[in-house]
Amino acid sequence: GNTTLRSSPVQVGTLTNWKQVSAGASGVISAIKTDGTLWLWGYNQYGQLGLGDITYRSSPVQLGTLANWKQVSAGPAYSSTVAAIKTDGTLWMWGSNSSGQLGLGDFNDRSSPVQVGSLTGWKQVNVGNSFIAAIKTNGTLWTWGSNTEGQLGLGNDVGISSPVQIGTLTNWKQLTTGARHVAAIKNNGTLWTWGRGYEGQLGNGIPFLNSSSPIQIGSLTNWKLTGCGGYYTLAVKTDGTLWGWGENINGYLGLGATTDRSSPVQVGSLTNWKQVSGGQDHSVGVTFTDIV
Fold first, then answer.
1. Local structure of 154: helix, strand or coil
2. Which pTM value belongs to this model?
3. Are 181 and 168 in contact (CB under 8 A)?
4. Given this model, what pLDDT does residue 291 score?
5. Residue 49, exposed/middle/buried by CB under 10 A (0-12, 13-18, 19+)?
6. How many Cα atoms within 13 Å fall on the side-chain side of residue 287?
7. Own/partner long-range contacts of 200-203 (Cβ < 8 Å, ≥24 apart)
């Protein structure tokens, strides 16, 4: 309800029914409650709050009256676009559309949710810097938007304003987007990256080199989940260990140093990481403790 900065966690309201939250680097927060309603607040220059205007909000405001929202993404870095999936598997987007990242075949911003095509079956969507990556329930992988550094994974640097499938594989399981790169895991536990690699965020041991097609990182088959930051990548293995690589100028990788890494490096020695998320300039993770 105000614009005062905080250096310690402060609870938003008193409700205890929040289910999922996504924070965009542009200052927009989106969250879904257990009842399936979607709420947004913060920056709104491009209509990324989806409320039909460009007025900023300093308190959560419900988007419409629907109670069938399943997943939402506001992007980790310099993003003014929001994407969300409903329980019926339809995909909806709004906000900035400067590079066609809304997937609607044009470049016009939207201040209210617009459905992307008529297809259902969308499983997970992630917003990057003016581009989108998504997985369907059939395991296919799709991207669209800006492609200046090969972040769409299509083997070129040509932008696309409508969803395009990457290859023909149907075994993609989970992904996250950085500013201009993507890290994804297949059903067999292999890890793949593509897009900008200048800071080493692709993890293939070769900094200063982009890749416009997915490349496998090593030969291991025990990767569980990814969590990209702006120009770096974090990932958790099935053994609960946490690994990081890419830009590390301010210690984003949690290695006790500020040297960039172009190959995965284990973060500490803990084996109980269950979730990890990267922002533009910081990282956060959650560990779990077994209760006997």
1. coil
2. 0.94
3. no
4. 44
5. buried
6. 12
7. 200/245, 200/246, 200/247, 200/260, 200/261, 200/262, 200/263, 201/228, 201/231, 201/232, 201/233, 201/245, 201/246, 201/247, 202/233, 202/246, 202/262, 203/233, 203/245, 203/246, 203/262, 203/263, 203/264
Which pLDDT tens digit goes with each residue over 164-192? 999 999 999 999 999 999 999 999 999 99
242 with 232: CB under 8 angstroms? no
Contact indicator for 22, 29 with CB cutoff of 8 Å: yes
Strand order in the sheet with 223-226: 223-226, 232-237, 242-246, 261-266
- Distance CA(69)–CA(178), nearest Å, equals 24
Report the C-alpha dihedral over residues 9, 33, 279, 54, rounded to 10 degrees.
Answer: -100
Query: Cα separations (Å) of 152 from 164, 170, 236?
Result: 9, 17, 23
Tens-place pLDDT, residues 194-246 = 999 999 999 999 999 999 999 999 999 999 999 999 999 999 999 999 999 99
- Tokens 């911003």 found at: 109
Cα–Cα distances (Å) from 285 to 200, 233, 272, in that order, read 21, 13, 10
Read off the tokens for 82. 């929001």
CA angle 77, 19, 185 (to 5 degrees): 55
User: Is the pLDDT assigned to residue 289 strictly greater than 80?
Assistant: no
pLDDT band (50, 70, 90) for residue 266 = very high
pLDDT at 35 over 70: yes
Partners of residue 55 on adjacent β-strands = none
- As a residue count, the chain comes to 292
